[in-house]
Design a protein that fits this description.
Distance between the termini: 11 Å
Oligomer: single chain
Strand content: over 45%
Helix content: under 10%
Number of helices: 0
Shape: elongated
Radius of gyration: 12 Å
Length: about 60
């Protein structure tokens, strides 16, 4: 996760799993904790899910 907006108002998710099949993490913001999970699919794509407060815009790359 990368902060790209003032006060953690925007966070960018750009998963790089390498040899891992999944990864899950959290990131604290002034608005609450943002949670994300990334899973490598059988076709090689990455499925991403996240939970964030409405004050935080999440950008998927």
């Amino acid at each position: 996760m990368n902060v790209v907006g003032p006060g953690c108002s925007k966070i960018e998710l750009e998963p790089h799993l390498g040899d891992l099949t999944w990864v899950k993490g959290t990131f604290p913001t002034p608005y609450g904790v943002v949670e994300s999970e990334h899973r490598k699919q059988a076709d090689g794509t990455i499925a991403t899910s996240f939970e964030a407060y409405e004050e935080v815009t999440v950008i998927l790359k």
